[in-house]
Amino acid sequence: MTTTTEKLAIRVGHSPDPDDAFMFHALANDKIDTGRYEFSHELQDIETLNRRAFAADLELTAVSLHGYAYLTETYALCACGASMGDGYGPMVVTREPMSIDDLHGKTIAVPGTLTTAFLALNLCLGGVPDEVRDREQGSSGNAQTFRYVVRPFDEILDRVAAGEADAGLIIHEGQLTYGNQGLHLVVDLGKWWMEQTGLPLPLGANAIRKDLGRETMQEVTALLKQSIEYGLEHRDEALSHALQYGRDLDQRKADEFVGMYVNDWTIDFGERGRKAVAELLDRGHRAGIIPNPVNLEFIG
Q1: Could you list the residue range(s) of the whole structural domain that residue 116 is in?
Q2: pLDDT band of 73, cuts 50, 70, 90
Q3: Which of 89, 147, 175, 232 is the most buried (most CB within 10 A)?
Q4: Is the Cα dihedral 248, 252, 253, 258 positive or negative?
Q5: Is 104 annotated in the active site?
Q6: Which residue of the set 172, 184, 241, 285 is catalytic?
Q7: What is the mean pLDDT of the chain?
Q8: Where are the beta strands (DSSP E) in the chain?
């Protein structure tokens, strides 16, 4: 008589975006042998995933590096799966040309207060928002040097174009499409960060739950790395899968966007990438945005 070993369920949360879809293609479509693990995927925007991570209901989840600052007791960072802005990143756009200084006192639509984009915006403008950790989604607030309203990331360009906010903080493919609506770039925060530090801007990562135990954490992280490597080695196939999540992106732009955020940094943070994470979170703490120092733990 044969027995079937029950597989260990790994629930994965990631954003419905071309870069994440590209990264998880092999796992989502059974392209690699996952051994004793069975993966299921839940697609939600990154701010929702940041908030969900406080309840630790997903074994493996995409998180903003800013959000991770509050999650170190329950999650460790996977050494693979990073989204790094290497001289580029989230952008602030407006209807009329402005300078960075012109943003002071303005209302900026943002995709969430736990996003790394929001942390970088505050570092750039000298803002210190109140109660970032506990502020509910869909709220507004005052960061002292500017005001902000939280809006879904894929609505921000429309909200700015309609005059519902003075400026918008855009992430994901909006970085390539804002010009289609006649909007103007004020600052690329990835470029600004590079000028300030000489480092890439670490935006997102994957975090794995610590209560799985060291062996499982390492094995699941290794499978995530295999999935990333599979996508990079089978680019056209993975890109075809990713295109279904490419709002307003044709194949050329989708390929460009994936190339920006799924690359060597994604295979491993490396020493420089880990230094960039530590620098970002340390600056956030010293600026009074992140309340406590962050102890980083990487798996893999």
Answers
A1: 91-197
A2: very high
A3: 89
A4: positive
A5: no
A6: 172
A7: 94
A8: 8-14, 37-43, 60-64, 75-78, 83-85, 91-94, 107-110, 140-142, 147-150, 167-170, 184-188, 201-209, 298-299
Name the nearest CA neighbour of 169 among 123, 207, 200: 123
Q: Which of 140, 173, 197 is the last residue of a domain?
A: 197
Percent of the chain past pLDDT 90, that is, above it, reads 85
Instruction: Grade residue 1 by pLDDT with cuts at 50, 70 and 90.
Output: very low
Which pLDDT tens digit goes with each residue over 153-191?
Answer: 999 999 999 999 999 999 988 888 899 999 999 999 999
Q: What is the CATH number of the domain that holds 116?
A: 3.40.190.10
Is 222 within a domain?
yes
| 47 lies in the same domain as 125 | no
Q: Measure the CA–CA gap between 168 and 163, rounded to whole angstroms.
A: 10
Contact present, 126 and 221 (Cβ < 8 Å)? no
pTM value is: 0.94
Query: Is the domain of 105 the same as that of 53?
Result: no
Query: Exposed, middle or buried, 11 (CB in 10 Å: 0-12/13-18/19+)?
Result: middle
Buried b (16+ CB within 10 A) or exposed e, 200-237: bbbbbbbbbbbebeeebbebbbebbbbbbebbbeeeeb
Closest CA relative to residue 100, chosen from 187, 175, 169, 192: 187
